[in-house]
């Protein structure tokens, strides 16, 4: 299965004057994060290079960057594919997520002021999507919520680490149960975390976040178990 790159033309302005490999990789990474490119889909060189208006060489460099970030894999004589992950990947990703996100809140607590507007916007987007029963969009809003939490630390390196980790996390979403029962508990946890942050209760927000991440990991591992034996990755959040 080859990805649908028909929407990439609109991303051309993001390349500014020259389509560098880093900018191309950033665009493709965002498409993976937002779920537009799913695990197992082939990243077609001619289709994507034409859509973005970049050379094959530039695109190949961007593929190498994505491979280094464990978001893509090159298969001999077949091409480049969005990576499929394993249950071991879930466990490792959540080790990194707890360290990164909880650490970001500890750092934010040391700052004189924090801007919660992006956290609030992500939660609002999630609630709007849930009301419309658009569960994939709830998943995208959840990704944006957790990126916004990491951004509270005011560290570009920490934020960049989180972008990569969340892009990897999104690779599980394709097998997710897109149901109210799966997503609503996470939205409720998001609201609790935001309430604590608004009150300046960073310790309570961190504790709630840690519980959230441990619960999410457990649910993902449970969902992924049937697929693990067949070599297919498990799913979601």
TrEMBL record:
<feature type="domain" description="HTH gntR-type">
    <location>
        <begin position="18"/>
        <end position="85"/>
    </location>
</feature>
<dbReference type="InterPro" id="IPR036388">
    <property type="entry name" value="WH-like_DNA-bd_sf"/>
</dbReference>
<dbReference type="InterPro" id="IPR000524">
    <property type="entry name" value="Tscrpt_reg_HTH_GntR"/>
</dbReference>
<protein>
    <submittedName>
        <fullName>GntR family transcriptional regulator</fullName>
    </submittedName>
</protein>
<keyword id="KW-0805">Transcription regulation</keyword>
<dbReference type="InterPro" id="IPR008920">
    <property type="entry name" value="TF_FadR/GntR_C"/>
</dbReference>
<keyword id="KW-0238">DNA-binding</keyword>
<dbReference type="InterPro" id="IPR036390">
    <property type="entry name" value="WH_DNA-bd_sf"/>
</dbReference>
<dbReference type="Pfam" id="PF00392">
    <property type="entry name" value="GntR"/>
</dbReference>
<dbReference type="InterPro" id="IPR011711">
    <property type="entry name" value="GntR_C"/>
</dbReference>
<dbReference type="Pfam" id="PF07729">
    <property type="entry name" value="FCD"/>
</dbReference>
<keyword id="KW-0804">Transcription</keyword>
